[in-house]
Write a structure and sequence with these properties.
signal; 12% helix; Methylamine Dehydrogenase, Chain H; EMC1_C; WD40/YVTN_repeat-like_dom_sf; transmembrane
Length: 967
């Protein structure tokens, strides 16, 4: 063999060897991916849907959406999947004010209306951006226009801010021309049918209109200024042209006054403002400022106004007069120069039809209606966007994207609902991980042992119960066979049931707008969703969610309550529902006052139900459900119920006791404390969890002494931010006893500020803050101990214990920006705790509690090393092996919810934000379960060999004993 062939053979063997190793390494890392975890990506509540009539180079039809959560994404209109997505900067710098789409790029105006950024439509890759001057404003506007009168594809982008207009070339971003204009509080930009650029401006007492050349930016008239009383922040305008030979009109609607008025863009037209109210047209009598939409159509003079699930189809005459044509419960959308698509909702059924309107007679000629089911959980329609199509008969069977009040984005195509996306899942504000009910067979097994009595009675009960179990097994088997023959799935469960280790649960979540979701923890599927009418977040507080009865108490259904406010009055509102099925249990309860505080009463009734108390702003206390007239509840409320409340505005903390006054419960203020001074504000209020498991009451030191923990279940951690005399920020954390108002501890961090996230558990408090001196995030840890003297009582009483704890505190630096933190929770609290940290980079990592021990010494002694203390280091390492979401990035995490499973070693973790992520973590490894790599075959062989060997050895021992006996 020649040297060259020998070299080639060696190289080939080396490559094959390296490829085999890489394949093995890949299998090691990816064999568990997606087994016990899942993640879901969302866009958020869409602000506008952008479609392009011409898309080249792609086999997919794309729609571009930007949302309230500062997300720009491309959606495949065929399947509803996200093709690409950009999560822009958080806060005002990333707020999208306007968006335009061209042939091969989509552009958004952000950074308070001063930055234009463009991306490739197919891949989402960044192309160019331009930062132009002007004052900070959120009223900037951009449109895509064509400088050709033949209405070809747009080839330039025109943007306007508070005082000037700029034209950019679409492909390069070069500035083509710039024009000054009068300052306005709200800017309007439109391109008329004649190809002119219509520039409008709204101020409180004037409407200005100017016509410019698209190609040069030169003014074609001197401008029109007319006096008008408008509210720029609540006024929306559209350009409507009554006829081809008539100058276009600006049609504006002021939602604060329900006024609809028209203004001609011609300087020779009548200068009188022509306006009217919607009720004068016999249309919508009540409007809200958050959900009013104007829509103009290609048909001459036609436009629509939509709000509260209703729409008015209106016509504008050549002299500026407005006339009502038709009112529907649904939405209008223009399809062609003569066709208008009408989407109506009635009795959970949506009907879609196309009406042809003649420009003169305005007589509708309705086509055949197409219907599809439309759930009430979607809410009313808010917008409809028709998808462009080259098919001439597109208006007969239109395809359109729709957005609903319940944040549902969907597509209607080919006469049916093609897909839908629950974008409300990107706006979750409160979550709970709830146990699933046991199966019917397991419930019958438990009933076997509940019967008490004589032996014959219990024996008979057991026989009957086992007969019922056999009957139930046969019924389930028959149902699964019939279901398999019908749908092809023989092992499909009709209802969620608890698994053997109680790792499968249902995740109950709610948004601030009153949308409730139930998610399956196995895969994130939406089990149920419902939209609550007139439900909203309280003005100064967050919504609360309480589980009054879990699904473990068969045959009683689970029950939970959502506490919020009435959208119209702001008074308290309670909604009771089954958190397993989502069914409403009782009628919603509306209070006469806003809610000040609420909570669970830890007294269980005979039907395993815990009541809740609600304290209103007049200090009247109510108990729900009202039919729970139990002496135990009355005794607890009278003797043991203490209520703690902190006002975030005034910084005043108050404690209340409850008394019975004139046969009604009344809260009486016992103590109050002012936590803030001038220039300070309360950031967070963090009480302990109601059921915080503490396994060990003390910590064993190296010299065998026990350092007892200070475990106060009534302790509340409050963080306050302020500014000192040198204008430097500082952060203060205060520990208050919620029963007596006594200050347990207080610490101040100089040159520190929020955002602040707090975890309060057992005898320690962890909190994050931004250290301006070193410009990094830090985690502060405070641990509290009683000392070495063992307390006599087996319970803690704030009224009897007045000693202050011994504090041990330290701070650690953590690389990256922290979005949320939480700690792991297990069934009995035996497993070591880990801190779950969500980073702004999209990673979710876990930090062992041993690394966050404030007793870590700089130079540990032999005794401290025996105790398990590791040397102190100011920086916490960000170990990549501890990132629990590996490459599944999750962004804008607002909260982390943890819960225990049936196994003590497993803790369930659910993170929610724009994205959702669920997984299992094992802080102390799976010490109560055999690992997946355990070799059962070797165990079987060893057991078999040991059994055979034991039989042989026993026989030999018996033989030897017999021989010894004969000697």
């Amino acid at each position: 063999m020649s040297p060259f062939l020998r070299y080639l053979y060696g190289l080939l063997c080396t490559v094959l060897f390296l490829l085999s190793i890489s394949q093995v390494i890949e299998a090691i890392h990816e064999d568990q991916v997606g087994l016990n975890d899942w993640s879901l990506q969302f866009i958020g509540r869409p602000l506008e849907v952008l479609v392009s009539a011409t898309q080249t180079g792609s086999s997919k039809s794309l729609a571009f959406i930007y949302s309230e959560q500062n997300v720009l994404a491309a959606i495949d209109t065929k399947h509803g999947e996200i093709v690409w997505r950009h999560v822009l900067e958080n806060g005002e710098n990333g707020t999208i004010n306007s968006g335009v789409v061209l042939e091969d790029e989509v552009c958004v105006l952000l950074n308070r209306g001063r930055l234009l950024r463009c991306f490739d439509t197919l891949t989402g890759s960044f192309k160019w951006e331009k930062l132009f001057g002007g004052q900070d404003t959120h009223l900037g506007k951009c449109i895509a226009v064509s400088d050709s009168k033949e209405r070809k594809a747009p080839n330039r982008i025109i943007c306007a801010n508070d005082d000037r207009i700029i034209s950019f070339a679409s492909r390069s971003g070069n500035v083509q021309w710039e024009s000054k204009c009068a300052k306005a509080q709200k800017r309007l930009l439109f391109q008329s049918l004649s190809g002119e650029l219509i520039v409008g401006g709204l101020v409180e007492n004037k409407i200005s209109v100017k016509r410019l050349s698209v190609s040069t930016g030169e003014a074609k008239n001197a401008g029109v200024d007319r006096s008008a009383i408008v509210h720029p922040s609540t006024t929306d305008c559209r350009l409507v042209q009554p006829a081809s030979q008539v100058p276009p009109y600006l049609i504006c609607f002021d939602s604060s006054t329900s006024r609809l008025f028209s203004h001609s863009t011609s300087e020779v037209a009548d200068k009188a403002q022509k306006d009217l109210r919607l009720e004068d047209l016999g249309g919508i009598a009540h409007t809200t400022g958050d959900g009013v939409f104007l829509n103009s159509f290609p048909t001459d003079g036609l436009f629509s106004v939509s709000t509260n699930g209703e729409s008015l189809l209106l016509h504008l005459s050549a002299d500026g007069q407005i006339k009502l044509i038709k009112k529907v419960t649904g939405f209008y959308a223009g399809c062609s120069e003569t066709d208008v698509v009408i989407v109506e909702l009635a009795d959970q059924i949506a009907s879609v039809r196309v009406a042809k309107y003649d420009g003169n007679s305005l007589t509708p000629q309705a086509e055949e209606a197409l219907t599809f089911p439309f759930s009430t959980s979607h809410g009313s329609l808010e917008s409809v966007t028709l998808l462009p199509s080259k098919d001439v008969a597109n208006c007969i069977r239109p395809a359109f994207l729709f957005l609903t009040e319940g944040d549902v984005l969907g597509l209607f195509s080919q006469g049916k609902l093609a897909w839908k996306r629950e974008e409300g899942l990107a706006r979750l504000s409160v979550t709970a991980i709830v146990d699933l009910p046991i199966s019917d067979i397991e419930a019958l097994v438990e009933e076997e042992f509940e019967e008490k009595g004589s032996f014959p009675v219990r024996f008979t009960k057991r026989l009957v119960s086992q007969g019922l179990q056999l009957k139930k097994i046969l019924e389930l088997a028959g149902k699964r066979v019939m279901s398999g023959l019908r749908i092809g799935k023989y092992f499909h469960k009709e209802q969620l049931e608890r698994d053997y280790f109680n790792t499968q649960k249902i995740i109950v979540s709610a948004t601030e707008s009153g949308k409730i979701f139930g998610l399956d923890s196995r895969n994130g599927d939406v089990v149920y969703s419902s939209l609550l009418k007139n439900f909203a977040k309280p003005k100064d507080r967050s919504i609360q969610f309480y589980i009054q009865r879990t699904g473990a108490h068969a045959p009683f259904p689970s029950q939970s309550v959502l506490v919020g406010a009435d959208k119209r009055t702001g008074n308290g509102l309670l909604y009771f529902f089954d958190c397993i099925t989502g069914e409403q249990l009782d009628q919603p309860v509306t209070l006469n006052r806003p809610i000040l505080q609420s909570g669970l009463i830890p007294v269980m009734s005979s039907n395993h139900l815990e009541a809740i108390f609600v304290l209103d702003s007049d200090l009247n206390l109510s108990i729900y459900p009202e039919n729970l007239d139990m002496p135990e509840i009355t005794a607890f409320v009278k003797d043991s119920l203490h209520i703690f409340d902190v006002c975030s505005k005034t910084g005043v903390a108050r404690g209340y006791r409850v008394k019975l006054v004139n046969k009604a419960w009344k809260a009486v203020e016992v103590w109050s404390a002012t936590l803030t001074t001038a220039g300070e504000a309360v950031l967070t209020v963090s009480p302990k969890r109601p059921h915080d498991f503490v396994h060990s009451q003390g910590r064993v030191l190296a010299d065998r002494r026990v350092l007892y923990k200070y475990i106060n279940p009534n302790l509340v951690a409050v963080t306050v931010q302020g500014t000192d005399e040198g204008k430097k920020p500082y952060l203060k954390i205060v520990g208050l006893d919620g029963i007596t108002g006594r200050v347990v501890f207080s610490q101040v961090h100089r040159r520190a500020r929020g955002p602040c996230h707090v975890v309060h558990s057992e005898h320690w408090v962890m909190y994050t803050y931004w250290n301006e001196k070193v410009r990094s995030n830090e985690i502060g840890v405070i641990e509290m101990y009683r000392g070495f003297e063992k307390p006599n009582q087996t319970y803690f009483s704030s009224l009897e214990s007045f000693e202050k704890p011994e504090l041990s505190s330290v701070a650690f630096k953590l690389p990256g920006f922290i979005s949320a933190i939480s700690d792991t929770v297990t069934v009995e609290g035996i497993t070591h705790k880990n801190l779950i940290v969500a980073l702004a980079s999209g990673s979710v990592t876990q930090i062992p509690k041993v690394l966050l021990d404030p007793r870590r010494p700089m130079f540990p002694t032999q005794a401290e090393r025996e105790e398990g203390l590791i040397p102190y280091a100011p920086e916490l390492p960000l170990v990549t092996e501890n990132i629990i979401n590996y490459y599944k990035k999750v962004y804008r995490i607002r909260g982390i919810k943890t819960a225990g499973a049936g196994l003590e070693s497993i803790s369930l973790v659910f993170t929610y934000g724009i994205d959702l992520f669920f997984t299992r973590v094992t802080p102390s490894a799976l010490f109560d379960v055999l690992s997946d790599s355990f070799d059962y075959w070797i165990l079987t062989v060893v057991m078999l060999v040991m059994t055979i060997a034991s039989v042989i050895v026993r026989h030999m021992a018996n033989t030897k004993a017999l021989e010894q006996a004969w000697k």
